[in-house]
Design brief:
mainly alpha, elongated
Length: 56
């Protein structure tokens, strides 16, 4: 169980690092806005980016 938790935390931290790096790019921001719009309009709520959901 602790190994699973460690792997999950590692994936989340990687995702957060990647997100913070790409946050400065207008293209990335636009992509997130589009994904949020799609998420609101459809039932694709289980699709996540870089292995962690609900962080964006």
């Amino acid at each position: 169980y602790s190994n699973l938790t460690s792997l999950t935390n590692l994936n989340i931290s990687r995702c957060l690092n990647l997100t913070s790096l790409l946050e400065e790019l207008d293209i990335f921001t636009s992509l997130i806005l589009v994904l949020k719009l799609l998420d609101n309009l459809t039932s694709l709520t289980n699709i996540d980016i870089c292995g962690c959901s609900n962080l964006i």
